[in-house]
Amino acid sequence: MLVLAAGLGGPRPEAGAAAGQAALVFVHAGRSLAALAPVYALRRPFGLGILPREAYSVEISKEAPGHGVEPLLEVPIGVAAGVEPGGASGAAMRDQEIRQVVLDDFFTAPGAVGMRFDTDGGAVPDARVLRDVLEVARARGVWFLGAPGGSAGTGVARTLGVPALTVTDEIDANPSSAAVASRVGALIERARRTGQAIGVARLDGPALAVVARLLPAFDRAGVVLVPPSAFLR
Length: 233
Known about the structure:
The protein is α/β, with parallel strands linked by helices. Helices cover 35% and strands 19% of the residues. Helix 4 (127-140) packs across helix 5.
C-alpha cells in the first residue's frame, strides 16, 4: 500500500515492494476551505499549489502540512497575470517591483516550501523576469516545480542554484474523467518504468475523484505516492 506522510495512520508497503514513486500536485487552492476536505480525507502526501492573495491562502498554507500535504506557492506570471515580459508593452515592471510582488505573494502563503508558475494562459516572461522571481525563491529557501518538457523557469532556477523538479504530465490537460484516468494510468506506468513521475492537476476539476478511484492501481503497480520534495533527495 501507499506510504503516508509522517504522523498519519494507515498501511505501508513491505520493504522492497516499491517499483517506483509518484507525486501528485493539486493546484489552484486558496479560494475555498471546503475544496480541501476531499484532499485531506485521502490521507496521502500530495502536493498542493496555493494561489496567493486569495481568501484562504494563508490558512491553507499553514494547515496543509498538518494533513501530510506539501504546500507550494503558485506565482501568477505572464502577460495576463500582470507580470509582463520586457518589451511586451510599455508597462513592463522593474526588477525590484517584480521581486516585491513575489515577496508579497509569499506573505500570503507563509507555509509554502516550494514554488510553481501559474501562467494564467499567457506567455511566460523572458529570462530577466524569471530570474527576478526565482531570486526570491532562492532567498526564501524554497524549491521550484517546472512545467512538463523542461520549462525556461527550470533552467533559470538551476542556474541560480534553486533546487528544481519538472512535472511529468498535466493529468487533466483534457478534463474529461476518461482522459484523466488514462493519463493517471500512464503516470503510474512511467513511475514503474523509470522510478519516478510527477503529475499536476487542478483542484476544481475531475482529477481528484479519478485519483481517489485509482489509488488501488498505484498499489497493484507497486508505485508509492510521495510528496514532490522527495525527489530532491
